[in-house]
Amino acid sequence: MRIVSNFYNFRRSLLPRKGGFRTTVDQLNAILRSIAILLPVMGAPALEASQSNTPPNVLFIAIDDMNDWTSYLQGHPQARTPNLDRLAKNSVHFTQAYCNAPSCNPSRASVMLGKHPNSTGFYSNKIGHTSIDLRKYYPDKLTIPQFFKQHGYSTFRTGKIYHYWGDWSDMKVKQKDLSFEVHSWGGGKSIEPSTYLCGIDFGWSFTKSGKRSYMDWGAIDAASSEFGEYGRASTMIKEIKREHSKPFFAALGFYLPHLPWYYPQEILDDPDLVHIRDVADVILPKVLADPPGRDLLDLSNVAVKIASGGLRPRSLEGSRTYKSWHDAITGEDKWKEAVQAYLASIYFVDQQLGRVLDALEESPNGEHTIIVLWSDHGWMLGEKGAWRKYRPWEDSVRTNFIVKAPGISAAAIEQPVELLSIWPTLAELSGLPIKDDLDGRSLVPLMKNPDTQWDFPVITAHLDESGNGGWQSIRTARYRYIKYLKTGAEELYDHSNDPNEWTNLIGRSRYRAVSQELSELVPDTMTVLGSWDAPDEAVVEHNRRELH
Q1: Which of 131-135, 146-150, 438-442 has the lowest mean pLDDT?
Q2: If pLDDT is split at 50, 70 and 90, which confidence band does 208 have?
Q3: Phi, psi (degrees; rounded to nearest 5) at 244
Q4: pLDDT digits over 295-344, tens only?
Q5: How far apart are CA 415 and CA 122, in angstroms?
Q6: Sign of CA dihedral 318, 322, 323, 325
Q7: Which position has the higher pLDDT, 166 or 171?
Q8: Are 102 and 472 in contact (CB under 8 A)?
Q9: Distance (Å, rounded) from C-alpha 62 to C-alpha 71?
Q10: Could you give the angle at the alpha carbon of 257 between the alpha carbons of 256 and 263, nearest 5°?
Q11: How many beta carbons lie within 10 A of that of residue 15, not counting itself?
Q12: Alpha-carbon torsion 347, 349, 351, 353, what sign?
């Protein structure tokens, strides 16, 4: 049984089988780039020269921690995202888009650098208790906005694009954002309730008083305009409306639905959310609930630890302590309330997105701007008893990915694609050269012809901060394969009849060839952070100018 195309097999045959990521992928990428140069001659340019001699603008929108609970992806039956829906309807949207790392820092680093975590070793948010600084390990590597700046674009950022304020985590050391000419947090001071709103102490406070937790949720009686998401949208609207002397690359990073899920009370009063206004009406995610934990019975010990891992929460008054987040949330009867808050947070962000899209449509730049919208990874809300990201399963790694470009017809594309494709896709759509060392491939051929055969599995990787070791998760059109490198434990799911990944098929003779084939794509070890070497001298020179 073959699950990847002959072309992919050819591509794989050029790569070493084991030991880190296959660096010789660049050889094939160079060939692919040469082929791509011929596409305009064959009558398939991304932007017709007759439309404009001016390169298109780029509006680059990242949304934090948003899974497929959006109306157009139908990840949850009660999701309402009218503005995402209208953007998707008029764009190319990818129904099977996946991140290459299921946490903020490495996912954003892979997108901005155009390199897979298996190339850079950038797998986690932190090493121990210390956050990983992109520029500490890769000071001389070009990022997407720098690339566009080199080609005559102005660059602007507001909100969260990297894991931090800018390229660097310590802004006392680095006061200027290296990647963007102009940067603004945009949202002002976060709203801070006096105590936990959800009624559970997750032991994860980021204030000295211990009265505000990352894991918290609830409606706040304040106007929408007082929230950071409103301010960031307003900042981007000003940038869109001002007069530009050259094409712009403008990046907008929404923080919600990242924790904590604080949203305006007026959101639940909106007619679009009347169906979840009463928490009793909220629909929970689908799980195998009889008996509890049944979904974990065919998984290895390390997988169970990853599913249930986290801090030990307790009831707010301290009378009960729980071994996992899921136990606490279900034990305190807060599951529906948490789902309600997540859906409300997404709807609030969707409203702010609508303001930005309206401003762009009303501006002179509306018809000459590429929009790319993506979420950095998925999120789990009780599936497999797991909460948050960091997990190798579908709900943790499936993302939103939409591209609207002049000259490209709207379409829904069902083949699996990866966020690594953002850079080369934007470059081709803008008529710019594609760097030879990018790990992703341009999606323009697929966008122009959604029936194109596209058998390129997506590899997602993570190095678990809790000490459970690293894992690699591979998604094809039909299967998901997972391997835990510390123990060698494996999982295989057939999405043709198991979209919730409830039945682990590893060990079944019928699927042995499939698991073996996918296993060959997994390296034996995780790549060492900082080992992506041989910087391009032009990149080094460019970044030195920026730094000094």
Answers
A1: 131-135
A2: low
A3: -115, 135
A4: 999 999 999 999 987 677 888 777 788 999 999 999 999 999 999 999 99
A5: 26
A6: negative
A7: 166
A8: no
A9: 18
A10: 70
A11: 14
A12: negative
Tell me which residue has tokens 């590893």: 506
Phi/psi region, residue 162 (left: phi>0; alpha: psi -120 to 50; beta: rest), is beta
Region label for 542, one of left (φ > 0), alpha (ψ between -120 and 50) or beta (otherwise): alpha
Mean pLDDT of the chain: 85
d(CA 276, CA 269): 10
Of the candidates 204, 246, 260, 248, the residue with the CA atom closest to the CA atom of residue 58: 248
Task: Give the burial class of 231: count Cβ atoms within 10 A of its Cβ; 0-12 exposed, 13-18 middle, 19 or more buried.
Answer: buried
Tell me the pairing of strands 458-464 and 314-315: unpaired
Intra-chain end-to-end CA distance of the chain, in Å: 56
Neighbour tally for 1: CB within 10 Å? 9
Q: Which helix (H) or strand (E) holds 93?
A: strand 92-94
Give the span between the Cα atoms of 344 and 229, in whole angstroms. 13
Q: Is the whole-model pTM more than 0.90?
A: no
Mean pLDDT on 514-529: 94
User: Is it the case that residue 13 has pLDDT exceeding 50?
Assistant: no
CA dist 252 and 369 (Å) reads: 14
Largest pairwise CA distance in the chain: 72
Asked if residue 210 has pLDDT above 70, the reply is no
3-state secondary structure 211-224: CCECCCEEEECCCH
Cα–Cα distance measured from residue 445 to residue 183, given in angstroms and rounded to the nearest whole number: 33
Cβ atoms within 10 Å of 171's Cβ, excluding its own: 13
Give the Cα separation of 217 and 259 in Å (integer).
Answer: 8
Looking at residue 538, its amino acid is A
Tokens 């780039």, residue? Answer: 33
At 54 the pLDDT is 87
Instruction: Give the Cα separation of 334 and 342 in Å (integer).
Output: 12
Give the helix ranges, DSSP H, for 363-498: 394-397, 422-429, 444-448
Q: Find out whether 372 and 60 touch, Cβ atoms under 8 Å.
A: yes
Single out the residue of 446, 452, 361 nearest to residue 408, CA to CA: 446
- Residue with the two structure tokens 């894992």: 471
pLDDT above 80: residue 227 = yes
Of the listed ranges 158-162, 165-169, 413-417, 423-427, the least confidently predicted one is 165-169
Q: Which helix (H) or strand (E) holds 154?
A: strand 154-159
Cis omega before residue 260 (within 30°)?
A: yes
> Backbone phi, then psi, for 315, in 5-degree steps?
-65, 155
C-beta of residue 69 within 8 angstroms of C-beta of residue 380 = no
What per-residue confidence (pLDDT) applies to 493?
Answer: 98
Q: pLDDT by residue (tens digit) across 262-307?
A: 999 999 999 999 999 999 999 999 998 777 778 999 999 999 999 9
Size of the chain in residues: 548
**Which residues neighbour 301 within 8 Å (Cβ) at sequence distance 6 or greater?**
487, 489
Distances in Å between the Cα of 123 and the Cα atoms of 27, 99, 344, 400, 538 are 24, 12, 30, 20, 27
CA distances in angstroms from 492 to 113, 334, 518, 524, listed in the order given: 30, 32, 10, 18
Which is nearest to 496 in space by CA: 517, 512, 480, 484? 480
